[in-house]
Automatic annotation (TrEMBL):
GO terms for biological process: negative regulation of DNA-templated transcription. PANTHER family: COPPER-SENSING TRANSCRIPTIONAL REPRESSOR RICR, TRANSCRIPTIONAL REPRESSOR FRMR-RELATED. It comes from Pseudidiomarina gelatinasegens. It comes from the Bacteria. One of its GO terms (molecular function) is DNA binding. Belongs to the FrmR/RcnR family. This is CsoR family transcriptional regulator. Coiled coil: none annotated. InterPro entries: Metal_Tscrpt_repr (IPR003735), Metal_Tscrpt_repr_sf (IPR038390). CDD domains: SaCsoR-like_DUF156.
Length: 96
């Protein structure tokens, strides 16, 4: 596992991500109810696809912010190892 550092996120981004994640949390709770109430499988699968798409949206937004702030800052400081880290992160996101 990579080292973890604190990254201050702009308030606007933080609020946007929190709202998106709260919506996703609600969708996941809805999925649980769908399973408990024996909802038609195709309907559950469609809801799962919606949750996955929503998580992908959060990932894209955060990745963009990461490249424009953290990665840029580390490159400007002469830390080229951030490119390997970024490559690994992108590979992980593309495996989905």
């Amino acid at each position: 596992m990579m080292k973890h550092t604190v990254t201050p996120h702009p308030d606007k981004l933080k609020q946007n991500l929190k709202q998106r994640l709260a919506r996703i949390e609600g969708q996941v709770r809805g999925l649980q109810r769908m399973v408990e109430t024996d909802t038609y499988c195709d309907d559950i699968l469609n809801q799962i696809a919606s949750v996955q798409a929503a998580l992908t949206g959060v990932s894209r937004k955060l990745l963009t912010q990461h490249m424009h702030s953290c990665v840029k800052h580390r490159l400007n400081a002469g830390d080229d190892s951030v490119l390997d880290e970024l490559d690994t992160t992108i590979e992980r996101l593309l495996k989905r």
